[in-house]
Amino acid sequence: MAAKNEWADKDYYADLGVSKTATEADIKKAYRKLARENHPDSHPGDTVREERFKKIAEAYDVIGDEAKRKEYDDFKAMVGSGGLGGFGGFGGGFPGGGGFRGQDFDLSDIFGSGGAGASPGGFGDIFGGRFGGGSGARRTARPTRGSDVETEITIDFREAAKGTTFPIQLTGDAPCVACHGSGSRTGATTTCGGCHGTGFRSENRGAFGFSSPCSECDGSGKTITDPCADCRASGTVRRSRSITVRIPVGVEDGQRVRLAGQGEAGPNGLPSGDLYVTVHVRPDEVFTRKGQDLQVTVPVTFAELALGDTIQVPTLDAPVRVKIPAGTPSGRVLRVRGRGVPKRGGGAGDLHVTVEVAVPTTLDDAATAALRDYAHAERESGFSPRAQWAGVGSEK
After folding, report:
1. Which of 44, 251, 299, 390 could connect to 358 by a Cys-Cys bridge, CB 3.0–4.6 Å?
2. For residues 330-357, average pLDDT
């Protein structure tokens, strides 16, 4: 996902082709459609579609999440109103009166990880020392855990419906074996002399006070006295590992599965991030799906519908027998309860069976003669499929 300071140049709603007032369902529907059309597995070697797919995934990661979408909307509203050009009404307080000039600022320093006033370098730090905002709070500048990791897999329709396990290979930061992730050969640390254990260094610039993470301890407040040679005191090393992902029953195309603590390892023994696996589902040759219900179209003969019969119908497991009442019209849907997609809390959806007449393309002499006799008897009985239909009336 793009960092917040890159959101100013992004239009995630346009990337997904939805309006800013789109519902969660509208956003999900648009994402699934575009993801299927641009997925690299369906268009190998097509770099244009691959880049398009990445933009779609990035957009959905933000506005497809309620909390992130609110952050994004608030951020764009502030940018659009000039709120970052010298903090809106405070622009005149800086040299030039037009915002930040002569110095580069990372917007993440303004907003941090939790909005205004929530992290070092934010509004709380700028105004805190001068106007009593947050001067008594002790904050940490270093990350609280490792980075989240995102990946994608493609599974079969029936695997998605019934659940499965899927092995994946990941390469990223893992705990250092030599120092058990601490970054120290013996585990010894001391209070940082540069920031006196606070993790920050502050400085006054005119009417405002600024704070930034301590460069000596990277904001941890402590320094390692005997750094581990294998990880160079970071506590993590780059390593490949295999993970078996458990896909729950009933997962749908485009859904994400979260594996807590399976992301990259945190520095110096901090907890690992999470792993997010986006699941893509291949279409099935027999079934389609609507929620927890399955749909299947079964070819039948005219005689089976007219006279009634019992036929075998496929399911996700063994076939079941379904009774066709006499006089059933072609296209009618018969429901088989509990034979759809399993539900995570138990039970399953239904199987909807559409019966459709299959018309033979060739007939032998005996079948042709018998059918002509039937057609004659049908007319003699007075039956006409188009009687009173569209003003046509019966035909003799």
Report:
1. 299
2. 94
Same structural domain for residues 13 and 123? yes
- DSSP E strands in 178-231: the ranges are 189-191, 200-205, 208-213, 222-224
* Range of the structural domain that residue 232 is part of: 149-188+225-281
Helices (H), 142-220: 157-162
Does residue 303 sit within a domain? yes
Whole-model pTM: value is 0.55
Report residue 133 as tokens: 């905002």
pLDDT tens per residue across span 26-46? 998 998 889 888 887 777 778
Residues making up the annotated binding site are: 176, 179, 192, 195, 214, 217, 228, 231
Residue 96 lies in a domain: yes
Is 394 inside any structural domain?
no
Looking at beta carbons, which pairs linking 297-300 to residues 24 or more positions away fall under 8 Å?
A: 297/353, 297/354, 297/356, 298/353, 298/354, 298/355, 298/356, 299/356, 299/357, 299/358, 300/324, 300/330, 300/355, 300/356, 300/357, 300/358
Q: Are residues 171 and 58 in the same domain?
A: no
Q: Region 47-64: what's the mean pLDDT?
A: 87
In a domain, 382, yes or no: no
Numbered residues of the known binding site for Zn(2+):
176, 179, 192, 195, 214, 217, 228, 231
Task: Name the domain count of the chain.
Answer: 3
Q: What is the pLDDT of residue 47?
A: 82
Q: What is the CATH number of the domain that holds 51?
A: 1.10.287.110
Q: 254 and 28 in contact (C-beta within 8 Å)? A: yes
* Whole-number CA gyration radius for the chain: 32
Give 39's Cβ-side CA count (13 Å radius): 17
The CATH number of the domain where 305 resides is what? 2.60.260.20
pLDDT by residue (tens digit) across 218-246? Answer: 777 788 888 898 888 888 899 888 989 99
